[in-house]
Specification:
single chain; alpha/beta; Rossmann fold; Arc Repressor Mutant, subunit A; 5 domains; seven-stranded mixed beta sheet; seven-stranded parallel beta sheet; about 25% strand
């Protein structure tokens, strides 16, 4: 389908007619080739890969540059667009190495199981024809096959979780593999940001350490979407300095990008419902479409509504998200890869480079959190060089509405820097313990973990988590500690969801407290369940099917306590803080009207978080009473939180915030934005260094909205613990201008 047809189809979707705020046509790009000298092995590989036998001697420019770097023995990182042939760029040098040295081995790391399975499907046929043995080794691999894979597979495809828990702690079983390891591929490198990236950096350091002990130094071949500050990011993540390859020689078709919004005054007031109707319209016309949602609940609500609209075609759409059981994931992936599904509703689990065939359109149900993720999701359509359609449906969210009013910020800005902090003490200490279990750590090795490693190792020795003997640190137990460290960053405990005796999936403990409380509605692949019991000791949530047309949302209250001032600024300080949060109840909502229909109290134990935040000191006096000043501070907190993800390249869930009319520690007003990860991951530090720009963007967000008193498009937040009570738009603007004199009036 060409762009003209897709544009026509877009115009036919009546529900979008009045909602489109901006359109942009991204131009097509012709392929650019290079003709490198190829040895016999590479010619043999390309003959297996190319359908067009007349052009087996040519590569895209970036593929040729990657091959040249590998030939020189250099590490490289590819930073080119989706569908540009990055897999071939790293497969070529790997295949060449394995053909030249049959005992050599390669390790491929993918951030998700779905991506690993997909890449295996496209790799195994070519590898097999070349006599190269490839296998997937992840949590779904049957135990009876694992020994054979360890011994015989030349390419092993896995994910950081399995490397962390299943390979490195059992490195004695992997001795031959590590000695023979010649290449490590790290795909979708841009996903390793935040707490996950902080953990993965340490996992890679543990891998390099065991390789050195085994006598190998594998090359690093990385692939990523575009990154701002990629050189520093790659060095921090991998401990290497790869050559950056940025000139994209791949072909791409035209792409129509539309920015739209649901209309609260219309019959379709929610972005979820509008997404469902657009998806249903495209699916009815046979346009293969993927709809990305910001949350698991949103995914399930959109799927249920889309199926209602599709009637007899309901089975042509399905959902995909974290928490599904392995067999359910494999079934959905199989139907997707084989083309049985025309539409898929998903979280960012399908954002990465999984090949779903001729995907013609994508719908983004809300801004995905970062500009990098926005382009990654937009890039999922038209991967084969075909024309494509991408629609962002903005929610009643201040940042998303800000993009609608300022589309160039989204469509023409550089992607954000990816922020992570491998030296986070909670992250670093957990991996020093894991490393010491794998092999005792010598003092000379600690320097490879950075400046903070030695001090953190001494803390571990004082707490008896490690034992010092001479110049080495030992782990004082036979039980591997890796199983207690969840590198996704949300604690190691998970809760199994049972419908009778049938497991539906799992959820992390923190998420279960917020979504699987007794009385909660749990949505699963279009089916509705009521939670009967949440047993945290047994780590089980019991559910039963229900026909009740509703959904639920938990209420969380937080209290913040300052611990130590780390850096002082003119209007704000960088502080270590302790946050105590507790789920206090939940609201019930009608599934059709989305109106609240009830509130229920809950009693759950509090959770504490030691982290880092930016504390704005409100010691300016406004010309109003205390109640008005408190409303202004509350508005300031919302404004700062709305634009913060834009400045530090994170998902908004990576940050938390609080406000006080009178902060007990200072007896002055305060607005505080903090990292929502134990120990912090560097986001607060990044924001602290950009306070003038932060305040300017917040002021522009509020000033440019035409409303009078504040609305969901500028000041109100769905995350507000007191449901947007006591907010002042005029007071917020006055505070912002007082904190940053010189801002435009």
């Amino acid at each position: 389908m060409n762009l003209e047809q897709l544009s026509t189809e877009l115009d036919l979707i009546e529900v979008l007619q009045d909602g489109i705020q901006a359109r942009e046509v991204l131009p097509a790009q012709a392929a650019r080739y290079a003709y490198p000298e190829l040895d016999e092995d590479l010619q043999r590989v390309l003959k297996r890969l190319h359908v067009d036998r007349l052009h087996v001697d040519r590569l895209y420019l970036h593929q040729a540059e990657a091959l040249e770097a590998a030939t020189r023995g250099e590490d490289f990182l590819l930073l080119t667009g989706t569908g540009s042939g990055k897999s071939l760029a790293y497969n070529l040098p790997v295949f060449r190495a394995l053909l030249a040295e049959p005992m050599a081995r390669a390790l491929y790391l993918f951030p998700t199981k779905a991506l690993g399975q997909d890449q295996f499907g496209s790799l195994v046929k070519t590898a097999g024809e070349l006599g190269i043995r490839a296998a997937v080794y992840d949590g779904d691999t049957p135990s009876g096959q694992r020994r054979t894979i360890r011994k015989s597979a030349q390419i092993i495809l896995t994910n950081p979780d399995m490397l962390h828990m299943g390979i490195l702690p059992r490195h004695e079983e992997w001795g031959h593999f590590l000695r023979s390891l010649r290449a490590v591929v790290v795909d979708e490198m841009h996903t390793y940001r935040g707490v996950f990236g902080s953990h993965v950096s340490n996992v890679l350091q543990r891998l390099w350490r065991l390789c050195r002990w085994a006598g190998s130094r594998p090359s690093l071949y990385g692939a990523s979407a575009t990154l701002f500050g990629a050189e520093d990011f790659a060095r921090k993540l991998t401990g290497r300095e790869p050559r950056l390859i940025t000139e994209d020689g791949g072909a791409r078709g035209q792409k129509l990008v539309a920015l739209a919004s649901a209309d609260p005054e219309s019959k379709i007031p929610s972005a979820n419902e509008l997404t469902a109707r657009v998806l249903a319209s495209l699916v009815r016309q046979g346009i293969r479409t993927m709809a990305f949602c910001r949350s698991r609940l949103g995914t399930e609500l959109v799927l249920r509504s889309a199926r209602d609209h599709l009637g007899s075609l309901a089975n042509s759409v399905d959902s995909y998200r974290g928490g599904y059981a392995a067999d359910a994931r494999r079934e959905i992936e199989r139907r997707l890869f084989q083309g049985d599904l025309i539409g898929l509703v998903t979280t960012n689990a399908m954002e990465l480079g999984v090949d779903v065939g001729q995907l013609n359109a994508v719908i983004l149900n809300g801004f995905p959190g970062t500009i990098a993720s926005f382009w990654q999701q937009v890039g999922r359509a038209g991967r084969a060089g075909e024309d494509a359609l991408a629609i962002l449906i903005a929610r009643e969210d201040p940042l998303e509405q800000y993009f609608l009013r300022n589309p160039d910020l989204l469509l023409r800005s550089n992607v954000e820097a990816a922020v992570h902090n491998p030296s986070n003490p909670y992250v670093l200490r957990s991996h020093l313990v894991c490393a010491a279990y794998e092999r005792p750590i010598g003092d000379d090795e600690l320097a490879r973990w950075g400046d903070a490693a030695r001090a953190n190792a001494e803390v571990l020795a004082e707490s008896r988590e490690l034992e010092r003997q001479g110049e080495r640190m030992y782990y004082p137990s036979f039980e591997p500690p890796a199983g207690r460290v969840n590198i996704r960053g949300s604690g190691s405990d998970s809760v199994t969801i049972l419908a009778g005796t049938t497991p539906l999936g799992t959820q992390e403990r923190w998420r279960a407290l917020r979504e699987l409380f007794p009385g909660a509605i749990y949505l699963h692949r279009g089916e509705t369940y009521r939670v009967l019991q949440l047993d945290l000791l047994q780590r089980v949530a019991r559910v039963q099917p229900t026909e009740d047309p509703e959904y639920t949302s938990s209420m969380v209250q937080s209290v913040l306590e300052p611990l130590e001032t780390l850096r002082e600024g003119q209007v704000a300080d960088l502080q270590a803080v302790k946050v105590t949060s507790m789920v206090t109840g939940y609201q019930r909502f009608d599934a059709k009207s989305h109106q609240a229909i009830g509130f229920h109290e809950l009693e759950f134990p509090p959770e504490t978080l030691a982290t880092v935040g930016v504390h704005f000191r409100i010691d300016v006096e406004l010309e109003n009473d205390f109640e008005e000043q408190a409303a202004a501070i509350h508005g300031l907190e919302h404004a700062l939180m709305s634009v913060a993800p834009l400045l530090c390249g994170c998902d908004r869930n990576d940050l938390g915030s609080a406000w006080y009319g009178v902060f007990p520690a200072t007896m002055k007003g305060a607005a505080i934005v903090y990292d929502s990860v134990e120990g912090g991951i560097g986001l607060a530090e990044h924001l602290f260094g950009r306070i003038p720009q932060w305040l300017a963007e917040a002021e522009k967000l509020i000033r440019d909205c035409p409303c009078r008193d504040g609305c969901p498009k500028c000041l109100m937040s769905t995350r507000c613990e007191i449901k947007n009570a006591h907010l002042s738009k005029s007071g917020c603007l006055a505070l912002l201008r007082a904190l940053a004199p010189g801002l435009s009036a």
